[in-house]
Design goal:
Blueprint (H helix, E strand, L loop, with lengths): L4 H5 L2 E6 L10 H14 L3 E5 L1 H10 L4 E4 L15 H8 L5 E6 L10 H11 L4 E6 L2 H10 L3 E3 L16 H13 L4 E4 L5 H10 L3 E4 L1 H4 L1 H10 L2
Parallel strand pairs: 1-2, 1-8, 2-3, 3-4, 4-5, 5-6, 6-7, 7-8
Helix pairs in contact: 2-3
The protein binds N-acetylmannosamine-6-phosphate.
């Protein structure tokens, strides 16, 4: 069966509906309603964390899902779908794409990303793989490993990129990413206004993921409180 995800989201907005256990909205039911609001607003896709959230969202809306599973392991800083165990479980939900960390940092249990990709290609040939990258070096790594989608998700969130913001210097880093890879690029991470989303698309991104600015009320409310 052909995976139509890339056609479905081209030039559009994907809304990330995530709330970790320490966040006020942590609930699969609430995330499914966030996804419904996203759909009613016109989003083309959803990004979601954890098996139960992905399933609840798939029951509520018929939009394609980028699935991931955030898990902390004691022996690694990698937390976005870090091992083959989480990769398989996320893909088994039937989501269109599985996202995982591609930051070059050591993975739990000494697992190697190349082995994870090979196993996923063999077991889930119709599932797209999205690389959550942080630097140009890791964009090149994701290309070499054959990821289908390059995401900028981890730019600003690793020791190598701490403090960076995708919008710095009129998206200078994003422009470099677009020059570095021929795979579709999805801008993600701190795209927090409609104007920034539009700029990412105009620069040539395939799609944009927006999360907190739409689905994290604590973050949204803080922005207002901070202005007092
Ligand atoms: C760094 C990390 O763990 N990012 C996570 C990845 O799935 C999510 O917590 C973000 O909300 C998502 O990337 C969207 O970004 P923003 O919420 O900034 O629009």
């Amino acid at each position: 069966m052909k995976n139509t995800f890339l056609d479905q989201v081209k030039g559009s907005l994907i809304i990330s509906c995530q709330a970790l256990p320490d966040e006020p909205l942590h609930s699969s039911f609430i995330m499914s309603r966030m996804a419904l609001a996203a759909k009613e607003a016109g989003a083309a896709g959803i990004r979601a964390n954890s098996i139960v959230d992905i399933q609840a969202i798939q029951d509520e809306v018929d939009l394609p899902v980028i699935g991931l599973n955030k898990v902390d392991y004691p022996d690694s800083p990698v937390y976005i779908t870090p091992t083959i165990k989480e990769m398989r479980a996320v893909a088994a939900t039937g989501c269109a794409a599985v996202a995982c960390d591609v930051t070059g940092q050591p993975r739990p249990n000494g697992e190697k990303l190349a082995d994870i990709v090979a196993t996923m290609r063999a077991e889930f040939p119709d599932t797209l793989l999205m690389a959550d990258t942080d630097t140009l070096e890791n964009v090149r790594l994701a290309d070499e490993l054959g990821f289908d989608i390059i995401g900028t998700t981890m730019h600003g969130y690793t020791p190598a990129t701490k403090g960076a913001n995708i919008a710095d210097d009129d998206f200078a880093y994003l422009k470099a990413v677009l020059k570095t890879t021929s795979h579709p690029v999805i801008a993600e991470g701190k795209v927090d206004t409609p104007a920034k989303m539009k700029r990412c698309l105009d620069l040539g991104c395939h799609a944009v993921v927006v999360g907190g600015a739409i689905t994290r009320p604590l973050q949204i409310a803080k922005n207002f409180i901070d202005a007092l």
